[in-house]
Amino acid sequence: MIYVSSSCLKNKYIVETVRQLAEHGIKNIELSGGTEYYDDLENDLKRQQRIYGLNYTCHAYFPPHKNDIVVNLASCNDDIYRESIQHYKDCIAFLNRLEIRTLSIHAGFFIEISSDEIGKLIKTNTIYNKENSYERFICAYENIRELCLQNDIRLYLENNVLSEENYRQFRYRNYLMMTDSGTIAEMKKKLEFNLLLDYGHLYVSSGTLGLSFQEECEKLGREAGWIHVSDNNGVKDLHLPLNQKSEIMKEVKRNHRIEDVNITLETVGTIKEISDSIHLISG
In 3D, which of 47, 61, 60, 39 has the Cα closest to residue 18? Predict the structure, then answer.
């Protein structure tokens, strides 16, 4: 099944994006970050769901908060850690009320970052003890997974993206969990999880770490029960519309039968560009 991320269109409020997608026949929608909180958000989503017969899934930083927070389940900052766990508890309650049965979340970071650094250059000087971070992440993830099981929600864990810019800033140390096959295997030794493989993230991380993107995809592609797809230049996670000749598209087609995996398009652009990407990934 092919979903379109709500982050593909840039609107202030989620209902505007959902309505635009639905009016153009897109009924499978992944609710994701990038919009602002408002009081009637939940009722609006229920209304759109009912009017258009929409099928929602949920990813990471959703629903939005009145005040921005950093979600990092590996944080050694007690306030961030508690807020992160509470975010997902609230999220699961929200999913139940909308009868949403899938949730995907991000792997953690071994560093402390601010909300305005997410997806950008990270300038932090606060680096956590790696083993403490792993211990916290595993404890939090297992609690969230148990809560998902109790509520009939399937949980996925997504790989992070390591850009060259941040790798240099980190003095060529990797302070992010699950950026490549090696660090995903490291997590697999510690934790049982369903992999959401973001091909855009993997393409950038492979270039940063000097790894073969094709070999990384061979190792990870068939493990993934869900994939995120968008195009980029291999340097930054740009969320570009899909290109039939790109390395990302070649690997997605080589490693997956479209009917056997859930796919979320994260291609930022116009409705036409989103529709063209749906056509490319479907073909």
Answer: 47
What residues pair up with 229 in beta bridges, in sequence order? 265
State the burial class of residue 283 (Cβ atoms within 10 Å of its Cβ: 0-12, 13-18, 19+): exposed
Distances in whole angstroms, Cα of residue 257 to Cα of each of 201, 222, 223, 281: 20, 10, 13, 10
| CA-closest candidate to residue 117, choices 172, 80, 157, 86 | 80
Best CA proximity match to 103, nearest among 152, 58, 149 = 58
Contact between 123 and 195 under an 8 Å Cβ cutoff? The reply is no
CA neighbours within 13 Å on the CB side: how many for 98?
A: 28
Q: What is the pLDDT of residues 148-189, one digit of tens each?
A: 999 999 999 999 999 999 899 888 999 999 999 999 999 999
Distance CA 241, CA 236 (A): 14
Domains defined for the chain, CATH in brackets? 2-199 (3.20.20.150)
Tens of pLDDT, residues 191-212: 999 999 999 999 999 999 999 9
> Which residues face 264 on adjacent strands?
3, 228
Beta partners for residue 231, in sequence order: 240
Instruction: Give, in degrees to the nearest 5, the angle at Cα 166 between 160 and 170.
Output: 105
